[in-house]
Amino acid sequence: MIKFAKYWLPVILWAGLIFYFSSIPGLNSGMSVFYDVFVRKLAHAGVFGILFLLIFLALRFGHGVSFWKALVLSLIAAALYAFSDEVHQNFVPERQARLADVGIDCLGVVFAGLLAVLFLKNKK
After folding, report:
1. Which residue range(s) make up the domain with 64?
2. Beta carbons of 48 and 109 less than 8 angstroms apart
3. pLDDT in tens, 52-77
4. Which of 49, 65, 99, 105 has its C-alpha lying 20 to 30 A from 73's C-alpha?
5. Burial of 85 (0-12, 13-18, 19+ CB in 10 A)
6. pLDDT (tens digit, 0 to 9) for every residue of the chain, 124 residues total?
7. How many domains does the chain have?
8. Is 95 exposed, middle or buried (0-12, 13-18, 19+ CB in 10 A)?
9. Rounded Cα gap, residues 70 and 68, in angstroms
């Protein structure tokens, strides 16, 4: 139970936070259109990069999954959640599902995966 709370509870809470913000109709930052789009896309990438890292840590240290297997499974899980997030937004008023957003989310996931690989390389 302690392992679950330490490793999987953050994953669940973070995924829940993503779901909550995706449920807000017409979410707007109040900035100009250019900065709103830029900040929003950067946030998409960062939020899903963090989700990847949380899943990776849960698999790697919570379950002892090998580094590479945890990396691949985390990439897949975070990418699938990004896709499901866009599907969810399709049912929220004033929101749209965009494959481009899934791509941006996945760029954040891949970037976080690269950071994990670089960290392992530097650790050896």
Report:
1. 2-123
2. yes
3. 999 999 999 999 999 999 999 999 99
4. 99
5. buried
6. 788 889 999 999 999 999 999 998 877 667 777 777 788 889 889 999 999 999 999 999 999 999 999 999 999 999 999 999 999 999 999 888 889 999 999 999 999 999 999 987 666 5
7. 1
8. middle
9. 5
CB 49 within 8 A of CB 112: yes
* Cα 119 from Cα 111, distance rounded (Å): 12
Please give the Cα distance from 106 to 102 (Å, whole number): 6
Q: How far apart are CA 124 and CA 29, in angstroms?
A: 42
Residues 10, 14, 15, 20: is their CA dihedral positive or negative?
positive
Instruction: Find the angle CA(46)-CA(30)-CA(10) to the nearest 5 degrees.
Output: 30
